[in-house]
Amino acid sequence: MVEVIVHFDVLERDGDISHLRGLIMAESGEKPTISQVENMLRSMGYQVTAEDNEHYVYVPVDAGTEVKKIEVRKMDNGEEEFSIDPHMKMIVQNLMSKPHRPM
């Protein structure tokens, strides 16, 4: 088992963004699962559920909270780093959703 530091952003409804970190124990050579990160966030007091299982994006269970969304930026186990580029994710999603058109 290795310690994995999870760097994440908490986006609030008023526009504030908090850059926070959490710790997860994971198997050596493997990144934490969506549910492991969700459990870490819940243990920190964020009642969330996964919105995007591929890109580690979480939304509150209760829509009345101040938190709008939580996005994982990167995970680091000291040997390797896994990061998510939200801009690249948006570009790929836009390209994949458009039908092929002749030029």
Overview of this structure, please?
Strands 1, 2, 3, 4, 5 and 6 form a 6-stranded antiparallel sheet that branches. The longest helix is centred in the C-terminal third of the chain and has 12 residues. The mean pLDDT is 84. The chain is of the alpha+beta class and 103 residues long. The protein has 2 helices and 6 strands, in the order E-E-H-E-E-E-E-H.
Write the layout of secondary structure elements.
Blueprint: E1 2-12, E2 17-26, H1 34-43, E3 48-52, E4 57-60, E5 67-76, E6 81-83, H2 86-97
Antiparallel strand pairs: 1-2, 1-5, 3-4, 4-5, 5-6
Essential attributes:
2 helices; 6-stranded antiparallel beta sheet; 103 residues; alpha+beta
Q: How is this structure best summarized?
A:
By secondary structure, this protein is an alpha+beta fold. It has 2 helices and 6 strands.
Quaternary status: single chain
Our estimate of the beta-strand percent is 35-45%
For the secondary structure, the number of strands is 6
* End-to-end CA span: 52 Å
Tell me the number of helical segments per DSSP (H or I, 4 or more residues long): 2
Uncertain runs: none
Computed CA radius of gyration, to the nearest angstrom: 15 Å
